[in-house]
TrEMBL record, chain A:
Secretion signal span: none
Name this protein carries in UniProt: DNA-binding response regulator
Organism: Streptomyces ficellus
Domain HTH luxR-type: from-to ranges: 163-228
Residue ranges occupied by any Response regulatory domain in the UniProt entry: 15-137
UniProt keyword Cell membrane, yes or no: no
Pfam family, one: GerE
Positions where 4-aspartylphosphate occurs in the chain: 68
TrEMBL record, chain B:
Name of this chain's protein: ATP-binding protein
Organism the protein comes from: Streptomyces ficellus
Boundaries of every Histidine kinase/HSP90-like ATPase domain copy: 334-420
An annotated GO BP: phosphorelay signal transduction system
Domain Phage shock protein PspC N-terminal, residue spans: 17-72
Bilayer-spanning residue ranges: 48-71, 104-124, 130-148, 168-188, 194-218
Domain of life the protein comes from: Bacteria
Length: 230, 424
């Protein structure tokens, strides 16, 4: 599956809405990934603030939303909150990929806890971004090295006993996968390294994302605020 | 009255020796302590003088009250002995210190003096009955005045919730005491019969005043808080502007000048980005400069990566999980890591950002540096090229750690460094 998605095009299409308050940035992303014939990405709408975003997303029902974290009107978290029903819709759910210039821990953890399927920084290359969009469309999670580092840190640095054993701890394997992501490995390379299939890597990453979103530990938020790691 | 005679000269003194009421270790208004600090006398002496004046003909009260009203509360004017009622703990919290002998003596003397004064006062005939109500009113006024001092001090030290409630209770107690004293006055004067009428009149006047002055007061306090917010905002903006002006604008100018050298432009932009991020997201209270020697692993990794990035113009993405203080072994590991970063930037930087990952897990510190360059085979490196063998592998081994170089399946080279921490 990943082999097909990385090449993009090849008959696959994904409808995307861009949410960012900087018009220049939207134009740049549009130019980089919006050439539908080669990338397979079709930008069906743009929005510059929270209200606009909710309106455009509801109207166009895209498969993936590229969501900026800092937005006038409450930020990306507010968009996620108001689109919660679209995210959990049984048919054609809308999926969110956070895309931000900020890589402060509290911003990152905030949008992920809000329901985004992944987080990439704006320095990402066009090809990687297209790849990430397709991955999110498939329902997989997208972890940048930095996000993987935050998650490892958040799940490691607590003395409090977990409220829910299943959610509040990462398995050994999940930890290994995250560590390799943090070291800059692509999913394919991780699969080779750990002698598992890419599909297994994806399911591990998705499990980590689920734990991050559902984990009971209030420490997660507190951790993010306290650390303000860059 | 030596004390009363002094202040006019002293207030003209240079600002260094300005007279303040002491905020530390005061018992009432801080007048005695402030004076003592100003005159360079032990505080007990000043207190005794006041007490003597007080017992003599009640003049002490008057002098003290005048000082209290006129002299501002300050941090200066501390007495020669730096002890206060409260001991300030290293964490900034204040707790009650064991009272020293002088203060106990002063308190006891004050109590005896006051009792003696009250019983000995004989104003003749009916007037005696007014002593107690006057005292009640006096104590109430003192309580309320101290309240004002506390309100002023709140701008220096943010009071906690509990403290604020305590202050409110104290203020109310002061008002109640004054009210009680006044009521007793009226009862004693035999006008108890008209008490109801008088009270009604008083309440009517108060209500009228509140109605007239209320909106104005509310408006004033709103204006004040608004002005404060504006000032804070302006200060913040000035700080941001100063920073942006100093570094960001400077960098943008440099970038325009060097527009035809993409390498230099990239290096400048990257360095500025890093600096701005550090500035925006730096932890509160961490006013560390970049130039200072790093004390922890995370700082050291980031600093090394930043320097390599600046020097070689290749972006390094740094991810650090956990942190610990640097020790000798870890310092060696940092040097090896830096060497690895330099190699990665030099020979593998073409393939994109160099990935630096450091993790503290239990007692082990793990550092990995990977590039996406053409790869690197240690066996094919000539024996005379000592860079990798000595400065990375050898250095780690000498300090009790391990180093591994390997080709990454997807292309590029990864250097893995492991070291045990010296302390727990």
């Amino acid at each position: 599956m990943t082999e097909e998605t990385t090449t993009g095009g090849a008959g696959r299409r994904v409808r995307v809405v861009l949410v960012d308050d900087h018009r220049m940035f939207r134009t740049g992303v549009q130019a980089e990934i919006g050439r539908t014939e080669t990338t397979g990405v079709e930008v069906v709408g743009e929005a510059a603030d929270v209200d606009q975003a909710v309106t455009v997303i509801t109207a166009t029902r895209p498969e993936v939303v590229l969501l900026d974290v800092h937005l006038p009107g409450g930020g990306g978290v507010e968009v996620l909150r108001r689109c919660a029903s679209l995210m959990s819709a049984p048919e054609n759910p809308v999926r969110f990929l956070a895309l931000s210039v900020s890589d402060a821990a509290e911003d990152v953890i905030g949008v992920i806890r809000g329901g985004a399927r992944g987080y990439v920084t704006k320095t990402i290359t066009g090809a990687d971004l297209v790849d990430s969009v397709f991955r999110v469309q498939d329902g997989d999670a997208v972890f940048s090295p930095r996000l993987a580092g935050f998650v490892l840190d958040a799940f490691a640095s607590t003395d409090a006993p977990p409220v829910d054993e299943d959610l509040d701890r990462l398995t050994q394997r999940e930890r290994e996968v995250l560590r390799l992501i943090a070291r800059g490995y692509a999913y394919k390379e991780i699969a080779k390294q750990l002698f598992i299939s890419v599909k297994t890597v994806e399911s591990h990453v998705s499990a980590v994302l689920r734990k991050l979103q559902l984990s009971n530990r209030h420490e997660l938020t507190r951790w993010a605020t306290a650390r303000r790691l860059v | 009255m030596p004390v009363a005679a002094r202040p006019p000269e002293t207030t003209d003194d240079p600002p260094v020796r300005r007279l303040y009421r002491s905020a530390d270790g005061r018992m009432l208004g801080g007048v005695a302590r402030g004076l003592a600090g100003h005159l360079g006398l032990p505080v007990v002496w000043v207190r005794l003088v006041f007490l003597a004046l007080f017992v003599a003909d009640g003049l002490g009260v008057l002098v003290y009250a005048v000082f209290w009203i006129v002299v501002p509360l300050g941090v200066g004017g501390r007495s020669a002995e730096p002890r206060s009622v409260f001991a300030t703990a290293p964490d900034g919290r204040r707790r009650l210190r064991k009272p020293d002998k002088g203060q106990i003596v002063a308190l006891v003397a004050l109590a005896i003096g006051a009792a003696g004064f009250v019983t000995s006062v004989d104003l003749g005939g009916d007037a005696n009955r007014y002593v107690w109500p006057t005292l009640l009113v006096g104590v109430g006024v003192v309580l309320v005045w101290r309240q004002v001092d506390n309100a002023r001090r709140a701008s220096w030290t943010e009071p906690g919730r509990r403290k604020r409630i305590f202050q409110l209770v104290r203020g109310l107690a002061g008002v109640a005491l004054v009210g009680m004293g006044l009521t007793v006055f009226m009862v004693v004067r035999g006008s108890a019969a008209q008490l109801g009428t008088a009270l009604t009149a008083a309440i009517a006047v108060l209500a009228g005043m509140a109605l007239l002055a209320g909106p104005w007061l509310v408006r004033m306090s709103q204006d004040l808080s608004e002005e404060r917010t504006m000032r804070i905002r302006a200060q913040e903006r000035a700080e941001v502007a100063a920073h942006v002006h100093d570094s960001v604008l400077h960098t943008l100018t440099l970038i325009q000048r060097n527009a035809d050298e993409p390498g230099e432009v990239r290096r400048l932009a990257r360095a500025q980005e890093r600096e701005l991020r550090n500035w925006l997201y730096r932890p509160e209270g961490n006013g560390k400069d970049d130039d200072q020697e790093p004390e922890t692993l995370a700082e050291a990794v980031k600093k090394n990566a930043a320097e390599v990035e600046d020097k070689h113009g290749v972006p390094l993405e740094v991810v650090v999980v956990g942190d610990c203080p640097l020790d000798e072994g870890l310092a060696a590991q940092m040097q090896a890591a830096r060497e690895a970063m330099v190699n990665a930037a030099k020979y593998g930087g073409e393939g994109g950002a160099v990935q630096v990952y450091a993790e503290v897990e239990g007692r082990t510190v793990f550092v990995s540096v990977r590039d996406r360059g053409p790869g690197f085979d240690l066996d094919s490196v000539p024996a005379d090229r000592m860079g990798v063998r000595e400065s990375i592998i050898g250095r780690m081994r000498r300090n009790g750690g391990t180093a591994r170089l390997r080709a990454v399946p997807g292309g590029g080279t990864e250097v893995e460094l492991e070291m045990e921490r010296a302390d727990g």
